[in-house]
Design goal:
The protein is mostly helical. The chain is built from seven helices and five strands. The protein folds into three domains: 1-30, no CATH class; 42-173, Rossmann fold; 205-243, no CATH class. Strand 4, helix 5 and strand 5 form a beta-alpha-beta unit. The protein starts with 8 loop residues before the first strand and ends in a 43-residue tail after the last helix. The structure holds iron/sulfur cluster.
Length: 243
């Protein structure tokens, strides 16, 4: 038997008995994290929400003509807890930004983000307006940017394939390499702005406007049923332990 460290190879190189002949045709050996990243990149489940016209193209991508199911990514989930990919499709207004951040926090780890379209990337035709974020990367980390206004379904599929490469690359690189947002909105929103206060409460140290601690995973307040961090049996990361 010959084992090569960095390749998926037949486990047996030569037959000695009939059993080994059977094994040779049915078994492969590989690395565990390679299998994990293959499974993750081949079954991305998007969170089901859209913000503006780009969402129509996202919906078209899931239909039969473009067939998102070829990539295992057609299972749009109505609950962020069952999703591991966020496609930010449309204009992100300041009013919507806390909701986008909260949905992202509620998604399961590991999770990835595609920013779809000029609005989400840099504000699009509304850039420099009073109402629109100059890029969704100010509130959530972004793995892949898809340009266009709107991007066609083919562009989103290209972005999805790039994201699959990113996930594969994370295995080789030993972790995530995307920049995290800082949570500093002082250059974008005035002091005392309610949306700024709401957004800042969704970043570490996760304190609400009245100083109450927020859940670091869900953004919930202590009297909310989704507040896990301080409950018995919860881990220090804020994730409830499954027993
Ligand atoms: S990028 Fe263009 S198509 Fe997409 S949400 Fe903005 S205005 Fe609409």
């Amino acid at each position: 038997m010959v084992v090569q460290p960095d390749a998926t190879i037949p486990i047996l190189q030569s037959d000695v008995t009939d059993i080994e002949s059977d094994l040779r045709s049915q078994l492969l050996i590989t690395q565990v994290d390679k299998v994990f990243s293959w499974a993750r990149r081949s079954s991305l489940w998007p969170a089901m929400f859209g913000l503006a016209c780009c969402a129509i193209e996202m919906i078209a991508t899931a239909n039969a003509r473009y067939d998102l199911a070829r990539f295992g990514a057609e299972v749009f989930r109505a609950s962020p807890r069952q999703a591991d990919m966020m496609i930010v499709a449309g204009t992100v207004t300041w009013k919507m930004a806390p909701a986008v951040r909260r949905i992202y926090l509620q998604m399961a780890e590991p999770k990835w983000v595609i920013s779809m379209g000029s609005c989400s990337n840099i504000g699009g035709p509304f850039a420099h307006g009073y109402s629109t974020l100059p890029g969704v990367n100010n509130v959530i980390p972004v793995d892949v940017y898809v340009p266009g206004c709107p991007p066609r379904p083919e562009s989103l599929l290209a972005g999805l394939m790039l994201l699959q490469d990113v996930i594969e690359d994370e295995r080789a690189a030993g972790g995530r390499r995307r920049p995290e947002p800082t949570g500093d909105f002082s250059t974008m929103l005035p002091e005392g702005d309610p949306i700024r206060r709401e957004l800042e409460s969704l970043f570490p140290p996760y304190l609400a406007q009245d100083g109450q601690p927020r859940d670091s995973v869900t953004g919930a307040l202590p009297n909310d049923e989704n507040f896990f961090s301080a409950q018995p049996g919860s881990s220090s990361s804020g994730l409830r332990e499954v027993r």
